[in-house]
Design a protein that fits this description.
Helix content is about 50%, strand content about 15%. The radius of gyration is 24 Å and the shape is elongated. It folds into two domains: about 80 residues; about 160 residues, Heat Shock Protein 90. Strand 6 and strand 7 form a beta hairpin. Helix 1 runs antiparallel to helix 4, helix 5 packs across helix 7 and helix 7 packs antiparallel against helix 9. The longest helix has 28 residues. It is α+β, with helices and mostly antiparallel strands. Bound molecules: adenosine-5'-diphosphate (ADP) and magnesium ion. Magnesium ion (MG) binds next to helix 7. Adenosine-5'-diphosphate binds next to helix 7 and helix 9.
Length: about 250
């Protein structure tokens, strides 16, 4: 997935670089072509300066470089977690992620996770399955952070803020559900939540990578399924299904 982002990104960055080069007085060719068009390069540059167009170009390359940096982090992330999988019970992973969310300082600045009522509905006979524990905790923590951010916006019907975590077996899968009573999502948002860089949050609070990286971890690294159910004003439920795999193939 990171490569699919890198290709259009390099077209953007090279395009901006090319445009800047063809506006530069350092190249004789630019001066000549401008004259052929009945203008002189200094006048063209003065116009672009005055209308802030050169600043727009700076903005595009800065944003492009920032996105490239995020992609690079993403690649490191998936390489680092190539580690072998081991047998785990998903309820243990959910519990560990709750602890991580409760001690997450950045999250607390926005809304204190500890103010949210947590309900656990775990099947007591959950089997252990093969998982990459670090990756799975990352996914669950992401979902809990998002739920907390959403709850910070508002809880629907003035209910007490709450998150329900469920874990059960469902045919050939272990099924995890995480439900919040935040404001939910519009159809437009719901359709795009797993897209890389899609975010509705302010700069600095959201990168739009939490759910796209999580989607990659669940579907590609764990051969599972990941989907969301949500309506505007009705809260949000994420559903993860992981194959009941118990031994290394
Ligand atoms: N529990 C939720 N309730 C409402 N909206 C959500 C929830 N979880 C995710 N979203 C929406 O999905 C978007 C993408 O989430 P994510 O990929 O984690 O990126 P980020 O959190 O950086 O914005 C969020 O910006 C938000 O609009
Ligand atoms: Mg997020």
């Amino acid at each position: 997935m990171a490569h699919e982002i890198n290709n259009p990104l390099s077209v953007i960055l090279q395009g901006v670089q090319g445009a800047r080069r063809r506006l530069s007085p350092d190249f004789q060719k630019n001066i000549v072509v401008a004259q052929e068009c009945g203008a002189d390069l200094e006048t063209i540059r003065a116009y672009l300066e005055k209308r802030s167009i050169l600043r727009y170009l700076d903005g595009i390359s800065e944003a492009g470089l920032r996105a490239a940096k995020i992609v690079e982090n993403m690649l490191n992330f998936s390489r680092r977690n190539d580690a072998a999988r081991a047998l785990h019970r998903v309820s243990d992973i959910l519990e560990e992620s709750i602890k991580l969310a409760a001690s997450d300082y950045d999250l607390k600045k926005k809304y204190d996770f500890k103010k949210i009522s947590i309900t656990r509905e775990y099947d007591p006979h959950l089997p252990e399955i093969l998982l990459n524990r670090t990756e799975m905790e990352q996914v669950i923590l992401n979902i809990l952070q998002n739920a907390t951010h959403a709850i910070a916006e508002e809880t629907h019907a003035k209910q007490r803020p709450r998150i329900i975590l469920r874990a059960s077996t469902d045919g050939e899968f272990v099924r995890i559900e995480i439900e919040d009573n935040g404001p939910g999502m519009t159809r437009e948002v719901r359709k795009r939540v797993f897209e890389p860089f899609f975010t509705t949050k302010d700069v600095g609070l959201g990168t739009g990578l939490g759910l796209s990286v999580s989607y990659f971890i669940i579907t590609s690294n764990h051969k599972g399924e990941f989907r969301v159910e949500s309506e505007s004003g009705e809260g949000t439920k994420f559903v993860i299904q992981l194959p009941l795999e118990r031994s290394v193939p």
